[in-house]
Amino acid sequence: MRQLLPRFTRITKTAAQSAAPTFTWRPSVTDERTGLAVAATLLVDDRPCTGTSCQVPSDGQPHLLQVRAAGYQDWELGIRARLAPGRVFSGPVRLRATKKRGV
Fold first, then answer.
1. What Å distances lie between residue 59 and 5, 26, 81, CA to CA?
2. How far apart are CA 5 and CA 22, in angstroms?
3. What pLDDT digit, counting tens, does each position of 43-58 carry?
4. Cα angle for residues 13, 17, 20 (degrees, 5° grid)
5. What is the spatial distance between Cα 59 and Cα 83, in angstroms, rounded to a whole number?
6. Which letter does DSSP use for residue 97 in this model?
7. What's the CA gap between 5 and 88, in Å, rounded?
8. Residue 93 CB neighbours (<10 A)
9. Pairwise CA distance, residues 49 & 15, whole Å
């Protein structure tokens, strides 16, 4: 005997299905002069990210990607793209050290 679903079945989306589509921003942050890796804070639209990559909404709206590190100039990139969800946007970010006074 075939089992029938109740007449009014509530179908809900999983968290992954209901979340807005995003792409991943994964920069490699280095010192411009030495090429050594730099510990930095990544931000998307002034909100900090956790770890070494960020999820950026893929909605075609302008977004501001930022990198901040102590002793270095801030780095910013404005992006307005509708990248395919799940894609990874990566590349080098070379930070310039701030000039020290009295040197």
1. 37, 18, 7
2. 34
3. 999 999 988 899 999 8
4. 125
5. 8
6. B
7. 41
8. 19
9. 19
Q: Is it the case that residue 4 has pLDDT exceeding 70? A: no
Query: How wide is the angle at C-alpha 20 spanned by C-alphas 18 and 23, nearest 5°?
Result: 130
Token pair for residue 76?
A: 């910013």
Residue found under tokens 């020290």: 100
Write out the CATH class of domain 21-87: mainly beta
For the residues of 14-68, what is the DSSP string, one character each?
-HHHHSPPEEEEEEEEEETTT--B---EEEETTEEPSTT-EEEE-SSS-EEEEEE
